[in-house]
């Protein structure tokens, strides 16, 4: 059985919820990613901040990314998946919640990676990709 750990991009890193969005953008550039998981003071997942969030909800809204924190943009219940979850469980989680990036957590509740659309494209059949696209972009 193929698991989340098999298809994820390893080495994802947290950004603290107290960190500013300009720093988040710098980390995204350094790591060539479009999203960062956000952690609270207990290193628990409290959300994800994306490059689009920074542009739309901060800069375009007239706010200063040097003063707005990653935690300020986190909304709703953060979604994640266990590293041992099956690919079917990964797809179900992403499709039901219409999300394009999914943090992967190990048994100790530590962030071990992220699953993105690119990871899915490398690992899934054309039929699975088609179904994913149909559900997430519908």
UniProtKB/TrEMBL annotation:
Gene3D superfamilies: CBS-domain (3.10.580.10). Keywords: CBS domain. SUPFAM superfamilies: CBS-domain pair. SMART domains: CBS. Pfam families: CBS (PF00571). The keyword rRNA-binding does not apply. Residues 8-65, 73-131 form the CBS domain. InterPro entries: CBS_dom (IPR000644), CBS_dom_sf (IPR046342), Diverse_CBS-Domain (IPR051257). The keyword Aminoacyl-tRNA synthetase does not apply. Transmembrane segments: none annotated. PANTHER family: CBS DOMAIN-CONTAINING PROTEIN (PTHR43080:SF2), CBS DOMAIN-CONTAINING PROTEIN CBSX3, MITOCHONDRIAL (PTHR43080). This is CBS domain-containing protein. It comes from Streptomyces radicis.
């Amino acid at each position: 059985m193929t698991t989340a750990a098999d298809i994820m991009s390893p080495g994802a890193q947290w950004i603290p919820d107290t960190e500013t969005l300009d720093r988040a953008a710098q980390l995204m550039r350094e790591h060539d990613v479009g999203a960062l998981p956000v952690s609270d003071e207990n290193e628990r997942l409290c959300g994800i901040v994306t490059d689009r969030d920074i542009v739309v909800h901060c800069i375009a809204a007239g706010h200063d990314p040097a003063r707005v924190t990653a935690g300020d943009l986190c909304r709703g219940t953060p979604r994640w998946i266990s590293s041992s979850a099956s690919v079917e469980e990964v797809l179900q989680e992403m499709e039901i919640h219409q999300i394009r990036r999914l943090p992967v957590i190990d048994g100790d509740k530590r962030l071990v990676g992220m699953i993105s659309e690119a990871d899915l494209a490398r690992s899934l059949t054309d039929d699975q990709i088609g179904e994913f696209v149909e559900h997430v972009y519908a």
